[in-house]
Amino acid sequence: MKVRILASAAVMTALAGPALAVDDAKLMKKANETFDPIPTETPELEDNKITEPKVDLGRMLYFEPRLSKSQLVSCNTCHNVGTGGDDNLETSIGHGWQKGPRNAPTVFNAVFNEAQFWDGRAEDLAAQAKGPIQASVEMNNEPSQVVKTLKSIPEYREAFAKAFPDADKPVNFDNVADAIEAYEATLLTPNAPFDQFLRGDKDAMSAKAKQGLKLFMDKGCSSCHNGRNVGGHGYYPFGVVQKPGADVLPRDDKGRFAVTQTADDEYVFRAPPLRNVARTAPYFHSGKVWQLEQAVQIMGSAQLGIDLNDKQAGKIVTFLKSLNGDIPTVTYPKLPVRTAETPKPKPMMAKEEKTSH
After folding, report:
1. Active site residue 33
2. Is 314 found in the same domain as 205?
3. N or C: which end of the chain has fewer CB within 10 A?
């Protein structure tokens, strides 16, 4: 009798193996119809050829606080490449110690977003780079002052000439933005467990993560969060079914309405990319939610009209953690020394009109 029981168990184990493989194959096929892996190579940019000198210059400018009026704030201040590509604050602190109105999005994989900012007002990373430099609540500077500062430093004049060899006047504000865009395009996080799963490795994700992926697709999360960045494109009302409370959805921030002035765009925001989302708390444009499980449950009720229990939310969060890819190794650049002609910093004092992320 004991032999029969063991034999039956062996048969059941043998049968379970193929069944699991079939399920994995089906899940993998469905996932590949909805998502794409992050590539390991830097993508090409439209109207901005990526070259090594341009990327090197862009890296310097990304970490250059002298692009700001106070000469204290750089791109990396709010989009810190050491902390998930953002600053892990509810909203960022900028010029005059002002608190910005929206949570800073991650810079990692941002090149794959359809548009930049929560309201999509910047069509690409170059347009986005110009915004914070001029925004009074962020870097609070002017293009002419930026150019004057960079021209006053011989090493920057040389770097711009190498990065833009065909330009008559290589040090200009457009080229500042193009160089930063070229550098930011290199900030990719490939080889996440989910990417490996999409490429055919069924063992790259845990069983719980696969259950979370299945829930993510079956419950409808992937209708908005799909593609290479698992989001980052498409505009949707925050509260399709049920609007969250004012503690999560501030009523004075009407989202894309400020861009289009169209009533239908009130409280509409671009679907955020979910790559590395487990590294970028707090969540939502308001930055009011610090727990990923809570954010998932809010999305379920607000966008899908469903109540996700703790177990379901936990599985989805486990899947979302599988979106954590390889963080790029970044060598902090050696920035050139100022000269006697370099404009002096302006003190961070006055509070001025705010411009949102």
Report:
1. no
2. yes
3. N
Cα–Cα distance, 156 to 35 (Å, whole number): 41
DSSP for 292-338 reads HHHHHHHHIIIII-----HHHHHHHHHHHHTT--PPPP-PPP-PPPP
Looking at residue 130, the DSSP 8-state letter turns out to be: H
Side chain identity, residue 1:
M
- Map tokens 């810190």 to a residue: 80
Count other C-beta atoms under 10 Å from residue 165's C-beta. Answer: 10
Query: How far is Cα of residue 251 from the mean position of the Cα atoms in its chain?
Result: 24
Task: Give bridge partners of residue 235 from the DSSP assignment.
Answer: 270
97-145 tens-digit pLDDT: 999 999 999 999 999 999 999 999 999 999 999 999 999 999 999 999 9
**Which residue has 């490449």 as its token pair?**
81
Overall number of domains in the chain:
2
- State residue 349's pLDDT score: 66
Question: Whole domain around residue 29: which residue ranges?
Answer: 2-34+191-321
Residue 41 counted as domain residue = no
Length of the chain: 357
pLDDT digits over 82-110, tens only? 999 999 999 999 999 999 999 999 999 99
Catalytic residue among 90, 138, 181, 184: 138
Pair 100, 357: CB distance under 8 Å:
yes
